[in-house]
Every structure is written in structure tokens, then in C-alpha cells.
Design goal:
Length: about 575
């Protein structure tokens, strides 16, 4: 079920780099632009005058990067304590399309912040940012109107569904593909906003496939960005030109014919910690399903760094919406509670790791492959060698990197969700995330004795690399997972109208029913911990079905009733 693949890639640096990444290149990479290599080598020697010369030559050799090289030159001149030259090169980018994207907060510029010229320059930057912001807000207004219209149409459809007289007829209608949607505004992207946590507005953008047809349904992938702790607030409008999410994710999603969704996060509202923002992704998916025709059996989540950790967290905490999970440079750990790795039995994960990643080492990923084999978890691990640092794959544009993304998406599209699988295992330490498909731990009883089969998965990880110099392997070992709270667990199967459920430290459990699972014309039998707790026919519950559909807009996992049992 689990396996590991190794990619060995040659030394090729990025086509262009943000300044804070350049310090990692010296001595590590050989570029297709030799001037970049010479620039990096002189950075390593702190020969700033020569670094400036090579930055300018690199810009001449590759005009697309010219303005980034001016920023390089400004940074090097500042390190060389040449204020006049610093401002000369900074002013070269004022009329460029990257003017507002420069890393002007770099410490190398700190000594210049009292210079009157710095205040003048940053005033221009802030004015340009505000102009861009106002332009984005103005151009976003048609998208806001479209979003209102699409969501209003979904509410109208729900009103029509409520008029269907019988529960069985409602079920048959819900199982039908969604009704056609109008084609969206012209262009590759649609801008949207999720109302969240009462007063929070979360921007996200939707990237549509080429030749998008509103009459068809499409698979969907949600791409999660990294560095969530560095985001202080949400932008007013999602920036579709921003490579923050990783241009390779965007390009490959388009090439693979998926609708791709890119939600933003902040240090408080995100997919890692705290739990305040964990529902952003599920709620965005539900909202997109109301506006566009999505194949419910092919919804995926992926990302880089903190985004990959987020994808892993949905696998272990809230997998029900998804068919498959993947991530690049992942640290596989749930940050808001226990990492209950056995929950991964219910889905799959496609993991891509690089050899010079400080976030989680090769040794840890290999140990996880071994654990996955033990528990028969579909876990694929791809190793990328070549002194590849944490940010390499999200920035690189070389042929080997493109092949890695193609393989990731190809694997993704082989996965289809089966919400009716006959066997489930689920464990949680917070009943908010107590559900997987048709089984739910409704309440916990962590004071009860733990069953023998309910044991944590532990292993240690060594081989950690230094953040600033990943060539250095640190002499440290740590636990892969943490377990701050006691948990409850359930192991459940069904066959021939009978459910057999085993629980450990659970106060109550709920079973969700579908005609895909049971014959409702016959009695449904439920056994919990070797005791028969239910043996009777179950009717479809129309109000329950409408409530579930209003929330989920799911045409595959249509639940018609549920049964809840207290554990004695």
C-alpha cells in the first residue's frame, strides 16, 4: 500500500529569486545563467562590488529578470554601505511591474531607514500599493455581484427541493448531477469571498480550466499556501498573479483540467493552528459547490510547507469531503491535538520530500512509510535529491520539477472518494472532528479504560537539518507526533444491513445511513461492543436530508437518516 520513489535532479538554480533565498545559493547550485552563479559566489565571499556587477550582467543575459537584478544590486550596495548606489538601483524599479513586490523589509536596508531618501522611496512604494489595491477592489466588484447571483440561485434550488413531497423522491433528485450553471465572467480566474467567523471575510480565487463549460462538472483541487504564521491579515482581494501559492501548482492544475481553488489564511485563521480557521477549507469547498458544478467524488487538497501540513491535517481530522491528499515539503503532524495516523487508513496521501529540507527530514518520511506499511495505509513517498532546500520545488521551473508536479497530479486524479466503504477506523481527541464518512464519535469518555486495539502510533525522527544551512545535519532526535489529550476511537464495519462497531473511550457514536449501504425495506441491525443496540427498519428523514444538502451540496454522499447510540 505504501512505497517510496527517489528523484535525483541536477544542480539548476531558479530563473529568478527573492532576495531572502539568494543567501542559500552560494556553493549549492549551478545556473543556466552563469552570471547568477558568479553573483552567488561573490555573495558567499561578501564581495559586494563584484556581486553588483554580476547581478547586472545576469539581468542583461535574462531581460525578464532585469528588475529583480536591480533589487539584488540595491541590496548588495546597501551591504557595501554605499547609500547613493543603493538608491540609484532602487529607483530603477519604480516604474516596473515588480515595484511593490520588493523585499524592502530586509535587514540589509536597516541602516538607511533614517535617510530622508528612504522615506521618499517608501512613500512611492506605499502610494503604488494603494493604487494597486484600489484597482483590485474596483475590478473585483463584478465578481462580487456574480458570487451573489450564483449563491442566490443555489438558495432557489433548495427552495424547489423542499417542495418535493416525499423523502424517497427527494433522495432520487439529490442523487442526480447538479443543474447546469451559467458561465462565469470571462477570464481564467474568478474572485470570491467567504464570510467566516461572523466578521471575517476570507478571499480566495478560483482558477478555471481552459475552455471552461458551465454545463459540465469538474474535479477540484484546493491548494494551500505555506508561511501561515507570517500572514497578519487577509488581503481585500485575492491576487491571482501572486506566486505565493506556487506557480507550478497553478500551471499543473490548469494543464490537468481541474478547477483549482486558492484560499488565503492568517496566523489566526489557518489550516494548522489554532483551530479557529480549520473550517475555512471545508466551507470554501461547500461554497464553490454551490456556484460551480463539482464532481463530488474527485475533490482534492494539496499544498507546500504549512499548506502540506494542512492537507495532512485534513486527512487525519476531517477527510469526508476529499478523495485524495498530497503535499510538498510536508511536516506530517497535527498541530492542534493528537496525530492519529491510523485515520489515514480511510484515504491516501502522496508525499514529496526534498533532501535538504529543514522542515522534516528524509529519515522521518522513510519511517512514516514503514508505519504506513504496518497499518496498510496508502502512503506514497517521493524523494527529491540534489541538495534541494525547503523552498526549491515551489519556486523552481526546471524540467525535473515540472515532471514532479505532473506525477503528483496524475496520481491525484486516479483517486475517487468512496464515502460508503465497508470498514472505517476513526480516532479523535475533540468531538468537533469526530466524523469520518458514515461513522462519528459524538461524545468522548476519556475516563473509561482504553481498549487493547486503541494504541497511539509513535516513532522518533532524527536527521534534522539546520534552517539556515541545510547542509548541516543536527545532532537531535524528536518524536514525530504529540498527544496532548486523551482520545477516543471507533472501529466499524457494515455488511448485509448489519453494522458491527467497536469503541474505546467514546461516550456515544452516530451512524449515518444511505441506500447505497443498506436496504431500507429491511431491518437495520447495529451491534456496539458485541451488544445488539438496534434492530428495526429505518425511514428516510426528509428534513434531515434537506439540512444535510443545504450544508454540503453533495450529490454523492446523500445521507437519509442517522442513528445515535450511547455507550454503556
Amino acid at each position: 500500500m505504501s512505497n517510496s520513489t527517489t528523484f535525483r535532479t541536477g544542480f539548476q538554480s531558479l530563473g529568478w529569486l527573492l532576495l531572502f533565498l539568494l543567501s542559500f545559493l552560494s556553493g549549492l547550485a549551478q545556473s543556466r545563467n552563469p552570471a547568477v552563479d558568479s553573483m552567488g559566489a561573490n555573495m558567499g565571499r561578501q564581495n559586494w562590488k563584484a556581486a553588483i556587477e554580476w547581478a547586472l550582467k545576469a539581468g542583461e543575459a535574462n531581460p525578464e529578470d532585469k528588475y529583480w537584478r536591480y533589487l539584488n544590486a540595491a541590496d548588495f550596495a546597501s551591504r557595501d554601505k554605499n547609500a547613493d548606489l543603493t538608491f540609484y538601483y532602487l529607483n530603477q524599479v519604480v516604474d516596473s511591474d515588480i515595484f511593490t513586490k520588493g523585499p524592502y523589509g530586509n535587514k540589509s536596508f536597516d541602516w538607511l531607514r533614517s535617510d530622508p531618501r528612504w522615506a521618499v522611496f517608501m512613500g512611492k512604494v506605499n502610494e503604488a500599493k494603494e493604487r494597486e489595491r484600489q484597482h483590485r477592489i474596483k475590478t473585483s466588484l463584478p465578481f462580487r455581484q456574480l458570487q451573489k447571483e450564483l449563491l442566490a440561485k443555489a438558495r432557489e434550488e433548495l427552495t424547489t427541493l423542499a417542495k418535493i413531497p416525499s423523502a424517497s423522491a427527494l433522495y432520487q433528485q439529490l442523487r442526480q448531477p447538479p443543474s447546469p450553471r451559467p458561465n462565469p465572467l470571462p477570464g481564467r480566474y474568478q474572485l470570491d469571498w467567504l464570510s467566516f467567523a461572523d466578521s471575517v471575510e476570507v478571499p480566495y480565487f478560483i482558477q478555471l480550466p481552459a475552455h471552461f463549460d458551465g454545463q459540465k462538472d469538474y474535479p477540484m483541487v484546493v491548494v494551500l499556501h505555506g508561511a501561515v504564521g507570517q500572514q497578519r491579515s487577509f488581503p481585500d482581494v485575492a491576487d491571482t498573479t501572486h506566486t505565493f501559492f506556487g506557480q507550478s501548482f497553478m500551471n499543473q492544475a490548469s494543464e490537468s483540467g481541474l478547477i483549482a481553488v486558492f484560499p488565503y489564511s492568517t496566523r489566526r485563521y489557518n489550516w494548522m493552528m489554532p483551530d479557529d480557521g480549520f473550517d475555512i477549507v471545508p466551507e470554501v469547498i461547500r461554497e464553490v459547490k454551490k456556484m460551480y458544478n463539482i464532481d463530488d467524488s474527485r475533490v482534492y487538497v494539496t499544498g507546500h510547507s504549512n499548506g502540506a501540513t494542512g492537507a495532512f491535517s485534513y486527512l487525519l481530522k476531517q477527510p469526508g469531503l476529499f478523495a485524495g491528499f498530497s503535499g510538498i515539503n510536508n511536516r506530517p503532524q497535527v498541530r492542534t491535538g493528537g496525530t492519529f495516523f491510523r485515520n489515514a487508513q480511510n484515504r491516501s496521501f502522496y508525499n514529496v520530500a526534498t533532501d535538504y529540507d529543514y522542515y522534516f527530514p528524509f529519515e522521518g518520511h522513510r519511517s512514516l512509510v514503514d508505519v504506513a506499511k504496518k497499518w496498510q495505509i496508502n502512503w506514497q513517498n517521493v524523494e527529491v535529491e540534489g541538495h534541494r532546500t525547503h523552498g526549491y520545488l515551489v519556486n523552481a521551473k526546471d524540467t525535473a520539477t515540472r515532471a514532479i508536479y505532473r506525477q503528483l497530479f496524475a496520481d491525484m486524479l486516479t483517486k475517487k472518494r468512496n464515502p460508503f466503504q465497508h470498514q472505517l477506523y476513526w480516532e479523535c481527541d475533540d468531538q468537533t472532528h469526530g466524523r469520518c464518512d458514515w461513522i462519528e464519535i459524538t461524545t468522548l469518555d476519556t475516563l473509561a479504560s482504553r481498549a487493547e486495539w486503541h494504541q497511539p502510533v509513535h516513532f522518533q525522527v532524527s536527521g534534522w537539518r539546520d534552517v539556515y544551512d541545510p547542509a548541516i545535519v543536527k545532532d537531535s532526535t524528536s518524536q514525530a507526533f504529540v498527544f496532548p489529550r486523551k482520545s477516543g476511537a471507533v472501529s466499524a464495519t457494515y455488511s448485509q444491513n448489519q453494522f458491527i462497531i467497536k469503541t474505546s473511550c467514546a461516550g456515544s457514536v452516530t451512524v449515518y445511513l444511505s441506500p447505497e449501504m443498506v436496504d431500507l425495506s429491511r431491518p437495520v441491525k447495529v451491534m456496539v461492543n458485541n451488544k445488539t443496540v438496534f434492530n428495526a427498519r429505518v425511514k428516510m428523514d426528509k428534513p434531515f436530508m434537506l439540512n444535510e444538502y443545504e450544508r454540503e451540496t453533495d450529490h454523492q454522499a446523500v445521507w437519509v437518516n442517522r442513528l445515535t447510540f450511547n455507550i454503556n
